[in-house]
Amino acid sequence: MKNLSSLLITILALSVTSAFADDFYWGADYVTGNANTASNWFTDAAGTTAATIAPGDINADNLYFNTTPGNNTGGSISTTGRLDAYSLTFNTTGYTKISGDVHIGAGGVTVNTGSGGSQIDNGGSYDTYLTTSQTWTNYSSSVLRARQLRTTGSGAITLTLDSAGTGGINFSYIILDTTNAPLTFLVDTTDKVTISKNSSTVTWRGGTIINRGELSTVESLGSGDVLLGDTSGSANAKLTMGSAYDNANNITVRSGSSGSKTISTGGQIYGTLTLNDTLLFTSTNNAASISGAITGTGDFVKTGDNTLTLDGSNTSTGDFTIDEGNFTLDQSGAMTFYIGANGVNNQINGISTDSIELDGTFDFDLGGASLVNGNSWSIVSLTASETYGSNFNITGFSETGPDLWTNGSGLTFSEMDGTLSFAVIPEPSSVVLMICGLSAFYVLRKRRK
To answer: Of 132, 139, 162, 239, which residue is 20 to 30 A from 7 by alpha carbon distance?
Structure first.
């Protein structure tokens, strides 16, 4: 009986919600007006039925801003006052500006093809509140802008962003303090999402997922981890960070998609960078540095004209490729090379003709090495002539001659050709026997004379 009562209550609640689900269209003669005034709205797209109440149900009300009704052929729409809506849809060929706090439900935001652009809660005194997970889609060639984004409640919220047109989505501020629900940005777009500036006085709590398209930010990505690349499909994914931006986030390059995964930055990365697939790393505006650990199994490919400095530890089993620009392995940096069968190992390679300086530590992981006399492994294979700095060293090896390092157990690394090689060292007893044998042979020869 109790379960039946609960079911009836649920059905009744759904019925009530459906009964009060309304569509509201910005009114015919009110290009500019207060959104809380009922007469500024119609309840049909043709503009023949005036609204008797203003919209305000965040679970049910769908708000539309159209070119008609409104006699707004190419002009702008500007609203004032707070807006509460299940969804916002922009169809006007003019520009729509909402000046006031906006609370958006699960229906999210849609900007359709041909729209002249949309600005939500323009001005520093207004906020855009996400009350639950939702999707924002921009199909137009004009930008969708939002300022001072906040969340409500305590449960985690995911905001999926799809700039399906060419206009992009731009956020001016993302303000999530300790009273807000954590937010995950899910970028799943064919174009670009931009965070033009983030507030420096509060913390954006939450992570970032870039399945496809580009996310560009001049400042913070918040406190959560970053996932780059989809787990299926063939779409490209890119994270672009400002030249003065230092990133402390842990970043994981995901496998599964055949599309490229790219990070472009002129700043510093000091979180952990996990490569489960190939990463294209571009430093174009300023010199970049990686101070955090690089782990995983994927390749790292450097492009871009500027310098990349590695002063963290690279333990990835993939290759480290330098195809463009300068590269420096700083004295505090380290790179691990996994030695296998003859000629099987990860390496530093690439076709860059710029400066390559190796001044840090090489570590050779010999756990799977085939130490057979004559085997060798190409560790450094570059088009450019690399230089080895005064701080260069190899763990467990000693410098025993000009440009030569040995471990005393048959392994030798040559700076001249970047090769690690193995040669069997004769046992002392074998050497003695050989000497004795040669001596006896000499004595016999002498006696026969």
So the answer is: 132
State the first-to-last Cα distance of the chain, in angstroms, to the nearest integer: 120
The pTM of the whole model exceeds 0.85: yes
Token pair for 272 = 């952990």
Q: What domain range includes position 209? A: 2-369
CB 285 within 8 A of CB 306: yes
Provide the CA 200 distance to its chain's centre, in angstroms.
21
Beta bridge partners of 98: 79, 120
Number of domains observed in the structure of the chain: 1
- Tell me the H-state helices in 286-346: none
CA pair distance 65, 95, nearest whole angstrom: 10
Looking at the DSSP bridge assignments, the partners of residue 381 are 349
DSSP 107-126: EEEEE-TT---EEES-STT-
128 within a domain of the structure (yes/no): yes
Plot region of 206 (φ>0 → left; ψ -120 to 50 → alpha; else → beta): left
Is 440 inside any structural domain? Answer: no
pLDDT level of residue 176 (50, 70, 90 thresholds): low
The tens digit of pLDDT for each residue in 14-39 reads 343 334 459 999 875 557 788 888 98
Q: How far apart are CA 165 and CA 144, in angstroms?
A: 11
Mean pLDDT, range 47-67, rounded to an integer: 90
Strand partners, 204: none
CA dihedral 394, 395, 396, 402 (to 10 degrees): 10
d(CA 76, CA 88) in angstroms, rounded, equals 16
The rounded distance, in Å, linking the Cα atoms of 282 and 287 is: 10
Query: Residue 280 is encoded by which pair of tokens?
Result: 């294209």
161-182 burial: b if 16+ Cβ within 10 Å, else e: bbbbbebbbbbbbbbbeeebbb
Q: Do the beta carbons of residue 365 and residue 335 sit within 8 Å?
A: no
